[in-house]
Design brief:
This protein has seven helices and five strands. By secondary structure, the protein is of the alpha+beta class. The strands form two sheets. The protein has a three-stranded antiparallel β-sheet. It has a two-stranded antiparallel sheet with strand order 4-5. It has a domain at 52-170. The longest helix is centred in the first third of the chain and has 23 residues, at 3-25. It starts with a helix and ends in an 18-residue tail after the last strand. Mn(2+) binds at residue 142. Keywords: ATP-binding, Manganese, Metal-binding, Nucleotide-binding. Its cofactor is Mn(2+).
Length: 215
């Protein structure tokens, strides 16, 4: 066999040995760094699903006390948070004990106090999810689900610095009005048999009788 042919055969054999090492010995997942990345991704992926309707398995602490202990200098909640689903469920279902106007800012919001004393900011829905706001970047109102999406994206990326957020249906007549402060009640108007909230920011700021917040 000529020298050139021998070189070609040897190179081919080395190539086959290299491929065999990658796919057989390394399990087809590339370098050690790639395998570590894949294991980390699979671990993160397994931790993302949240059980609907989850509740704390112990009663020594309220969901709010559990969440308060998570907060650190660089994160709102740690990577390993088996109680996260239960805390989010509490945000979405806990009874509203007090409702007041929001504070600061130019977007409408309400300050609610949930059962157990937890204060939360409630932003109402102004548009359907598929509505397109045209014009300047700051045109229109805030999206009701923008911060919900931001929270879950922040969690998927592993930053864990966004505040806990959930979506929630609120009944104005039965959940808000009975526990509303006088300041918030002053923004309510009667239209026939239904109520409209003209502003959740303050009784006078951004008040518009022609553009009620909800009916």
């Amino acid at each position: 066999m000529k020298l050139k042919q021998r070189v070609v055969v040897i190179c081919g054999a080395l190539l086959l040995l290299g491929l065999a090492k990658v796919f057989l010995l390394d399990g087809g997942e590339g370098s050690a760094a790639s395998r570590r990345d894949l294991r980390a991704f699979r671990k993160m992926e397994a931790s993302l699903p949240l059980a609907k309707g989850a509740r704390l398995t112990h009663t020594l602490q309220s969901p709010w006390e559990v969440a308060a202990q998570w907060v650190g200098p660089r994160e709102v909640y740690p990577e390993d948070t088996p109680e996260l689903a239960a805390v989010l469920n509490a945000l979405a279902s806990a009874r509203v004990e007090r409702a007041d106007v929001g504070y600061k800012g130019t977007q409408l919001k309400a300050l609610l106090v949930l059962d157990g004393g937890q204060k939360v900011v409630f932003k109402p829905r102004r548009y359907s999810r598929d509505y397109v706001v045209e014009g300047e970047p700051y045109a229109g109102y805030d999206r009701h689900n923008a911060e919900i999406a931001a929270f879950h994206l922040d969690r998927i990326l592993g930053f864990r610095r966004a505040p806990l957020v959930v979506g929630r249906h609120m009944n104005l007549r039965t959940e808000i009005k009975p526990v509303a402060t006088d300041q918030l009640l002053s923004t309510f108007l009667m239209h026939g048999q239904s109520y409209s909230v003209t502003s959740l920011l303050s009784p006078s700021y951004l008040l518009s009788l022609s553009l009620p917040l909800c009916e």
